[in-house]
Structures are given as structure tokens and as C-alpha cells.
Amino acid sequence: MEEQHSMPTKYDPSATEKKWYTYWLKGKFFEATGDPDKQPYSIVIPPPNVTGKLHLGHAWDATIQDILARTKRMQGYDTLWLPGMDHAGIATQAKVEGKLREQGISKYDLGREAFLEKSWEWKDEYAKFIREQWAKVGISVDYSRERFTLDQGLSDAVKEVFVSLYNKGLIYRGEYIINWDPQTKTALSDIEVIYKDVQGAFYHMSYPLSDGSGSIEIATTRPETMLGDTAVAVHPDDERYQHLIGKMVKLPIVGREIPIIADDYVDREFGSGAVKITPAHDPNDFEIGNRHNLPRVLVMNEDGTMNEKAGKYEGMDRFECRKQIVKDLQAQQVLFKIEDHLHSVGHSERSGAVVEPYLSTQWFVKMRPLAEEALKLQEHADTKVTFVPQRFEQTYIRWMENIRDWCISRQLWWGHQIPAWYHKETNEIYVGKEPPRDSENWRQDEDVLDTWFSSALWPFSTMGWPDEEAPDYKRYYPTNVLVTGYDIIAFWVSRMIFQGKAFTGQRPFKDVLIHGLIRDAEGRKMSKSLGNGVDPQEVIDKYGADSLRFFLATGSTPGNDLRFYWEKVESTWNFGNKIWNASRFALMNMDSFSYSDIDINQEKSIADKWILTRLQETVESVTRLIDAYEFGEAGRLLYSFIWDDVCDWYIEMAKLALYGENEQAKQGTRSVLAHVLDQTMRMLHPFMPFITEEIWQHLPHEGESITVANWPVYDQSLVFEEAVEDMEALKSLIHAIRTTRSELNVPMSKQIELKIRPQDEQMAARLQRGVAYIEKFANPSLLDIAVDLATPEKAMSHALSGMELFLPLAGMLDLDKEVARLEKELDKLNKEVERIEKKLNNQGFLAKAPSHVVEEEKAKQQDYAAKRQTVIERIAELKA
Q1: What pLDDT is attached to residue 3?
Q2: Which of 37, 143, 493, 695 meets the CB 3.0–4.6 Å disulfide criterion with 27?
Q3: Are 751 and 780 in contact (CB under 8 A)?
Q4: Do strands 429-431 and 420-423 pair parallel, antiparallel, or not at all (unpaired)?
């Protein structure tokens, strides 16, 4: 550690961070101890994907969690904050395949095993990057316990869960319509599909009846799927079609005969009241097909091209096929109308491709029983997961109440391969944690599990489960808190809760703190397509990690989005400078002052007592706000205490003692200043770890790092109510004097007369106790404090709480010159008021100008009128 009191002159965030992040990366102070004498506290970290850089959302998660971890650690909790990374099946495989394509290689050229080796190489490379980024953000995770969703322990947990759910009948394999990504050629769960409004068309067609007696009208947005139609459906009570139910129609182009059926699903009021049924390409049609035993005709390949059942369209892309079919139907006079139609179309969250409802054999989790058990947790205060803000509990409940079975198989190689084997000669399926004994007669399912399947187990699989005697599992589970964004309540939070209940019998965490999304300054979501993303590393390089962290922690309230402004990050950098400079001043006045010299029980000045009281109030409030997850309010309170109370008032007042001749007073103020800075740096440390560690190391202190220093505790013996009342009166008085000097352009170097009339002797005594401060900050040539003070002539007056302040004008300025200046200013203001009034009385302007422009002009009118009134009153005072 560096020697005390030798802080560099200039605050350089990069130098400070460089010193500490490598030190902290070793995790020396962050390992959970398992100490039975300490209360355990554990935090769930959302594991970032091993696909590259951390984004601002990760930095926001990490900052909030780190504030909790550092605070609890300093409060004496045995704190576990376990880091880890997610294998991100689809995203990582896409990255690795992309890298191989650049080399002219495909995954099939390599084969599964060699491809997985390449994927692990990718993981190792990018995991290193992520650790470095974690350290640069300053997060205090327990690196000794780092986990990865594909490591052996988590793989064991995944197999245990899969086999258990399968044996209970809650995992099954079946042919269903699933969301299919033709670009990555894999299934997607419902929440991996993003819906966007797309301008499309409704295509109106007439299907001819087979007996030649007429036709029936249908409409579709996807004419290419008509090649797989196996019925036309109408509502059973629709009188228009009663006579057609049971008849056959001839499918245009294909020529295949299909029946007209009756089903309650059909909406009689929509379109013609008749719909085409394509069980292999629409989830609703799939259900209708099941009810009526319809065949399923799949007309597409996995890559979105048409297959052999599409006839002459085989090999065409699905959208090119649509164009050609429309032309052919028009030529046959089957298609008689096309109308524009804006509709919601599903897109793959990962690749952006239009999702295809696709008939496929997949693995599913039967969700209803699991969801019902999880929802029971919310019925009792001692078992429920508490959402902060509370409104997000309803988001979770609505999702769970309306949940559908979860498609968990993915057509990938990178991930947890499904522990199911198929006999090569029979239809037998074997599911187990280990391969079947005669494994040569079996082949393992080539698919892997959805990444979220393993992520759902994260709170307990990372702690040694399924070994329920694992020390970490027994001590730290269930965890205390999860911090995450509202956008993954369905993706991740809900799944952790139902899996936690199913396999541990408990909620996985007590609280879920929800934050919003980070948006740009215009309120838009950050995205590659808009080019409005911000790299947290870029912010750190420019303003330092502490500035970024403090902005993220204080820029929003729980559950709400945060807008990113470079100007606000810069303002937190200025805050860091303010802290640095104040600390340097303090340290320059602490030569040879050691920790053992600190004695805050000796005689203290009014300012000393006041700042100690304000410190206790701040300790109480900041601790309470952090416990309530109100980090923004806690940070803003610290900002105000440091900037206003410590820097602008106390340090200035402390100079009286520090630069004085009284050694006892000097030592007393040094002690208070050292104590206040020490305690303040401890409270600020969870928000801004780098600068606080650096300053604390230079302050007189005990201990190796502020990270493991004790959290400040409210001390009633350091609360001095009378000193607070004295100080508030002095601050009010000094502020009024400074404001008047500024308004009259009277510099602080010019002495002025001050006359003060307290309302009673108690206030008079209060002011007398603070005379030294009044003289320092007001620079009076004459100071007259008296309860029976006569009202002076030609003086500026201020009615303050408990006193009146008079500032005789003759001693401050040339009255005639000031009146002339003010009258000139009044003339300008009169012209501005007249100009705006004319504009606002102009009906043509009011009719044509946008409403916001009119409102701006009205605001200007009020502003100029108020300024004019102030000048009029000032002139009257000077002429009186």
C-alpha cells in the first residue's frame, strides 16, 4: 500500500482503476467464508453470454448487485456473490460457425466433436475478456466459485432434472407445431420470438366445390401454405354454410380433394367465415386437425425452402414461392382480390429471421403442474418471491397463469445434449443420466437443451445441488436477492422459480429487484440497427468506472428505464473530482496525523458538531435506503451530503481551526475531518469503489482495504441538535448575504456593513456563537447584532427565520449609478414584455403556431414580467 497523505494532485480514474482492479481480480476480499458466526447473504448474478463484450445492461445489473454485495460484506455478513457465464447455445454456435465460414469450413466438415472443441476454445477466449470487463467495472465477485452452465457440476444437475421430470411425465416428446428459425435451423420457445408489425396482404381465393355446384371463399396471408391444406373449416352454426358441411373442395394448383368441416374455432364475423386448414404449418390448424383426424402435409424444408410435396415449387424460397403462387392463382382466376393488411409477424430474437410455424418432433416440458406449484409460493408471505417494484409480481403471475408447454429441444451441437437414446432396431426410448449399458445398439438424441433449461437451475446448481449436503447449498440457498431487467421475467425469473420449487421445495430467492432497459437520450432502445449502442468500456476509458457506476445507480428508480446521457456521466466525473480535491485538502492538513490520533470526543466547534450530526443522519438514511433497494435515492443523498455539507460548508468552516493558532482546536477539527471522510468513503464505496479505496488508503486508517472495513453505524452520542440549529441559522444568514452581494455585483473582497436583528435573545446568542463564521464568510466592516436594533435607512432587508438582516446600501455601491443601471435594464425588460404581449395578442400567430411554441412564449412572458417586477422593486428600495 502507498504511504498516507501522498495523493497525486490530479484525479486520474484510469491510474486509480489500474492499481486496484488487478488487485481485486485476485478476489482476495470477496470469498465467502462460511463462518457460522456470521449471517449468510447470497446474491444471484445473471450470467452473461460467452459471446463477446458486456453491454450496458450487464454493467447496470453488476453495479446494483455490487452495491449490495459490498454493503453487506462491510456490515459483517458472510456474503456470497458467485460469478458465472452462460453458454448461450444459439448465439455462441452462430458466432463459431461464422468464424469457421471465414475459413471456408462448415461444422459438418469438422464433425460434432471437433466443432465442440472449437466452441470450447471460443468460450475460453471470451470468458477471459468477460472477467477483465468485470474487474474493470469493479465488481466484487467470489472468483474462487466461478461457474459455467456447461461445466461438469451443472451438467450433472441438468441431467438430474431432465430425467426426474421425464420419469414424472412432465417431459415428453411429441409432434407439434413449434416456432422454427429457418436461418439457424432450430426450434425456438415462445419467448424467443419477437413480434413486429409488417405490411402484408390478405389474399382472397375461391376454392371450387368438387361436385361443380359452386365455390367457397377463403382468405389467407400466407398463400404458399395452401399447398399443405387438408380442409376448409366453417362454424357449425353459420347458416351460410350449413349445406356445404361434409362436401369436398378441389385444392387449386394441387388438385387434391379436401373436406369442408365444422369447428367452433372459426370466427363467423371475420372475413368470409370460412378458413383454410393447414395442420402442419399453423398451431391453431394443428389443434383443429387433431380434433378432426386430418392428415398433416408438411410442404417446407428446415431452411425455409419448399420440399417435394410442394410439387413444381420444390426448391424455391418460401417468399419467392408466395410470389409465384399468387401469379399462378391469378392466372387460374382463383385469386380474385388482394388487400393490404398490417399484421404482427414473429421474428427470431437471435437471427432476426421470420419465424415459421413448423410441424416437428421436439421435446417439451409440461408446464401447467409446475406453474401451479410455483404460484402457490406467492400465497404466503414467508414463501413468496417478493418483486420490487411490486407491480412486476403481476407480470410474473399473468405469465405463469397463461403458460404453454415449453419446447426445450434445440437443433444445435453446442449445449447440453439431451440424455435420451433411441434403440437402433426398435422404437424404444431410453432416458437416463448415463448411457444404456449396451450403448452400441443405441444412438443418442443429437439435439441439445434450450439454454434457459440450464440457466433455470442457476441459483442451486451452482452451489453443488443435486448433492443436498454440499456446504454452499446448505448455507447459502435459498439466496437473498436477484437483480435483473423486466425483459427477462418470463425468460429466466419464472423458470428459476418453478424449477427451484420443483427440486428444492423452496423459492430460489427472497427478493427480485427489477430494473428497466437502458435507452438512448431520445428514449429509443439501444440496438445495432439504430447504431445507438454505447460500449461501457468506452465510457470507462473516458470517465472511469466510478463515474459510470454512479450514473447507473442513481439515474433511475426501481423498475423504470434509464436514459443514457454523456453529460450526466461527465457530471459524476466532476463529482469524483470534487471528492478528490476535498480529500487532498484534508490530507495536506494532516501531516504526521495517524489513526491513533483521531479523537472525536474532545472539544468541538459548532461546525464540527453540525457535520457529525449530519453524518449520523446520512448514515441512517443511506443504510435504510440501500436495504430498501432505493440506490438512486441513497446515491443522491450521498452526493448532496458530500458536495453541499462536507465540501461547500464544512471544509470551508474547518479552515478557521486548521489555519488558526489554537492547537487543541486544530487537532479537534483534524479528528472530525478524518472521521467524516473515513465514514463517508465507506458509505460511498459500494457506489464508487476505486476512488474511495484510493482515498481511504491515504487517510489515517486501520485495516488492509476499505472493502472489508466496517459499515458506518448510527451513533446517537454524535448528534448535537443545538449545533444543528446554530448552523442552520448561520447558513441561512450567510447565504442571504452572498446572494445579495452577487445580485449587486459586490465582490467578497469588499467589506460591507451588516446589521442583524434577532427575534429574541436565544437567536442572538446563537449568532454570537457563530460570529467567527459570519466574519469569515461575509467580510463585514461592521457587524451589529442586537434584538433592539433600529431599522436602518436605505438598506436591503431580508426576513429570515428568527431574524432580520439589513445591508446598508451606501457602503456597498454608488446609489445613483445603480439606479441608472437598473432603469436601463427596466427599459429592456419593458420592451421584451411589450413584444411578447403583441405576439400573444396576434390571432394569426395563435392560429398558426404549434401549441408548444405558444406555451414557450407564454413562459417567456411570465419570466420577463417577474424580472421586471424585481427590478421595479429594487429601484423603489434604492430611491426610498
Answers
A1: 44
A2: 143
A3: yes
A4: antiparallel
Cell numbers for 353: 429471421
Sequential DSSP letters for 227-295: GG--EEEE-TT-GGGGGGTT-EEEPTTT--EEEEEE-TTS-TTSTTSEEEE-TTT-HHHHHHHHHHT--
Q: Is 340 helix (H, G, I), strand (E, B) or coil?
A: strand
Buried b (16+ CB within 10 A) or exposed e, 353-376: bbbbbbbbebbbbebeebbeebbe
What is the rounded CA–CA span in Å between residue 194 and residue 527?
14
Tell me the C-alpha to C-alpha distance, in Å, between residue 674 and each of 132, 361, 474, 587, 714: 34, 70, 42, 8, 17
End-to-end CA distance of the chain: 66
Residue 753 belongs to what H/E stretch? Answer: strand 752-758
Q: What's at 786, amino acid-wise? A: A
Distances (CA, A) of 26 to 20, 142, 144, 145: 10, 9, 9, 12
- Maximum alpha-carbon separation in the chain: 116
Mean of pLDDT over the chain? 90
Which pLDDT belongs to residue 191? Answer: 65
Beta bridge partners of 741: none
Q: Which three cell numbers stand for residue 347?
A: 421474428
Q: What is the pLDDT of residue 2?
A: 40
Query: Phi/psi of residue 617, each to 5°?
Result: -60, -40
How far is 475 from 252, CA to CA, in rounded Å?
68
Question: Does residue 529 sit in helix, strand or coil?
Answer: coil
Give the predicted TM-score (pTM) of the model. Answer: 0.81
The rounded distance, in Å, linking the Cα atoms of 18 and 860 is 50
Q: What is the C-alpha radius of gyration for the chain, rounded to an integer number of angstroms?
A: 37
Q: How many CB atoms lie within 10 A of CB 873?
A: 10
CA 610 to CA 608: how far, in whole Å? 5
SS3 808: strand
Taking a C-beta distance cutoff of 8 angstroms, is the pair 35, 621 a contact?
no
The cell for 651 is 471544509
| DSSP strand pairing (171-181 vs 186-188) | antiparallel
445-449, 652-656, 745-749: the lowest-pLDDT one = 745-749
Buried (b) or exposed (e) across 599-634, using 16+ Cβ within 10 A? ebeeebbbbbbbbbbbbbebbebbbebbeebbbbbb
d(CA 276, CA 253): 15
Residue 401: per-residue pLDDT: 93
With beta carbons less than 8 A apart as the criterion, state whether 338 and 200 touch: no
The rounded distance, in Å, linking the Cα atoms of 39 and 75 is 10
* CA distance linking residue 219 with residue 232, whole number of Å: 11
| CA dist., res. 415 & res. 522, Å (int) | 38
How do residues 105-146 score in pLDDT, each as one tens digit?
888 889 999 999 999 999 999 888 888 888 888 989 998 999
Query: Taking each helix axis from N to C terminus, what angle separates 689-698 and 13-25, rounded to the nearest 10 degrees?
Result: 90
Closest by alpha carbon to 536, among 864, 59, 854?
A: 59
Residues 6+ apart with CB under 8 A from 651: 582, 585, 586, 673
Among residues 429, 424, 426, which one has the least CA distance to residue 441? 424
Cα 572 to chain center, whole Å? 19
- H/E/C letters for each residue in 79-140? EEEECEEECCHHHHHHHHHHHHHHCCCCHHHHCHHHHHHHHHHHHHHHHHHHHHHHHHHCCC
Per-residue pLDDT tens over the stretch 694-731:
999 999 999 989 999 999 999 999 999 999 999 999 99
Between CA 789 and CA 764 the distance in angstroms is 11
3-state helix, strand, coil in the chain (%, to 5): 50, 20, 30
C-alpha cell of 442?
443405441
The pLDDT value given to residue 192: 77
